[in-house]
Design goal:
16 helices; six-stranded antiparallel beta sheet; alpha+beta; 37% helix; Cathepsin B, Chain A
Length: 479
């Protein structure tokens, strides 16, 4: 029998026992490594919130897995761009894809730059608006710089100090050449006259009626610069500047008769007709029988018949003792009733009586229902001579004075002695036949009922056939 040589099994030859053992160990290691990688992949997917099956199909090749991952990445990018792609459980299927967040930023540099520019523009606009509100509105930071060059000296300084108070005074200051200097001075001295001064260039010089209600015993406070009569020409100027006399007389008449038909413009026309629109005060005291040139007034407080200041015998002064200003009795009789009669009043210059001072005489006249005209010489009433009206006596013995040239003077209670010391003439105005009329009579005749005496033409008030036109029973109350 032929012997055959031994040949080992091919597999045995290819894989000897030692080799098979090594191969088995390597397979085990690969299986263990695969399980470990799968476990790590599953952990990563859990950390990233991946949704879906953690197992990979064992039959898929590496290239297939890569294509699958690539497809899922592209799909996720499309969903992110379109705002969709959230899974049913609120997450994204990211699987094993690593995401690099380092290239993304929560702030856009371009937006930051644009925002900064916008904020800067807003700040500049706010600054411009605030600046314009403080300077652009007035047109100039210092209106005094625009004061007309026609104003000089103290008047210019005074105007500059008041031009920022209102538009009207500023306009006057800037256009001073349109206004008389005396009118601008009035605006400075009496701020209440600003509107009157401002309207001067276009104002009518015609008088307007006084339509407010008045009653007997109630004295209306009137000022020269009232537009109803202030622009009317008078005494080489206008009532607004020189008409204190006519204005004071009109106030007294309105209170004595309770009538408004005679205004300051009416009295000014009468004064002009009589030739009395003269002198520093604008109305001559001689219209009432008083010589305003004599500024000395006899005072005999102790009743000894001698002037307390000069020591001269009052009786020795002759006819001058009949009046406070030294005028003659004839002059008083001939002219004291001239202006007063034209407007239906009686004028009685304050006289000095033995045993009584002129101050007490003035107070008595007011308490008896008269109103006393005062021609001032300046002093306490101001530097410029003018006329004022004593309208009443206060409970403390002081007197109330309405000054048509000054608001401050009209609101001030005055000592009677101060009023007398600052005066050059004192004239009591009353109704004919009234308690304040020293020349009262009861023989007036007014058959035609026009309110004037048929014989003398004197105004007698109510038009009765006989009487005074006033009533002794009328009680004069000063307001």
């Amino acid at each position: 029998m032929q012997e055959r040589s031994y040949r080992s099994d091919s597999r045995s030859r290819r894989n000897p026992p030692s080799s098979r053992a090594s191969s088995t160990q390597r397979s085990a290691r690969r299986a263990s490594e695969g399980a470990r990688q799968r476990s790590q992949g599953a952990g990563r997917r859990r950390d990233m919130g991946a949704i879906g099956d953690d197992r990979r199909p064992p039959t898929r090749s590496t290239s297939e897995r890569l294509r699958s991952v690539s497809d899922r990445g592209q799909s996720m990018q499309r969903r992110q761009r379109t705002g969709r792609g959230q899974g049913s459980k609120g997450g994204y299927q990211l699987r094993n894809r690593n995401i690099n967040f380092s290239g993304r930023s929560s702030y856009d540099p371009q937006l930051i730059i644009v925002g900064g520019i916008a904020i800067a523009i807003i700040i500049l606009l706010i600054f411009f608006i605030v600046s314009c509100a403080t300077s652009c509105g007035s047109g100039t930071e210092n209106p005094a710089e625009n004061v007309s060059s026609s104003l000089e000296g103290d008047l210019r300084t005074q105007v500059e100090s008041m031009v920022t108070s209102d538009y009207q005074s500023t306009y006057v200051a800037e256009n001073a050449e349109l206004y008389p200097t005396e009118l601008i001075q009035l605006m400075v001295d009496e701020p209440a006259s600003v509107s009157f001064v401002y309207n001067y260039p276009n104002a009518s010089h015609e008088a307007q009626p006084y339509e407010e209600q008045v009653s007997k015993g109630s004295v209306p406070l009137l000022y020269d610069w009232d537009a109803r009569w202030g622009y009317v020409d008078y005494a080489g100027s206008m009532i607004g500047l020189k008409g204190s006399g006519p204005t004071a007389v009109a106030m007294a008449r309105m209170a004595l008769l309770g009538a408004t038909d005679v205004t300051p413009a009416t009295v000014a026309a009468n004064v002009t007709q009589l030739g009395g629109a003269t002198g520093d005060s604008g109305m001559a005291a001689t219209l009432f029988g008083t010589d305003s040139g004599d500024t000395t007034t006899p005072v005999d407080a102790d009743g000894d018949g001698y002037d307390d200041n000069t020591g001269e015998a009052i009786e020795a002064t002759g006819e001058s003792s009949d009046t406070s200003g030294g005028g003659t009795g004839d002059a008083s009789a001939s002219s004291s009733q001239g202006l007063a009669q034209m407007i239906g009043l009686t004028a009685s210059p304050i006289t000095v009586e033995p045993g009584n001072s002129i101050t007490a005489t003035m107070v008595d006249a007011v308490e008896n229902g008269s109103y006393v005209l005062v021609e001032t010489s300046g002093g306490a009433f101001g530097a410029t001579p003018h006329w004022a009206l004593v309208i009443g006596v206060n409970s403390d013995g002081s007197v109330a004075v309405y000054d048509p040239t000054s608001v401050a003077n009209s609101l001030h209670a005055w000592d009677p002695g101060t009023v007398v010391d600052g005066s050059t003439a004192l004239i009591a105005l009353s109704v004919p036949g009234g308690s304040g009329d020293a020349n009262a009579s009861s023989d007036h005749v007014d058959e035609d009922g026009d309110g004037y005496d048929d014989s003398t033409g004197e105004y007698i008030g109510d038009g009765s056939d006989e009487g005074s036109g006033g009533s002794d029973d009328d009680t004069m109350t000063v307001q």
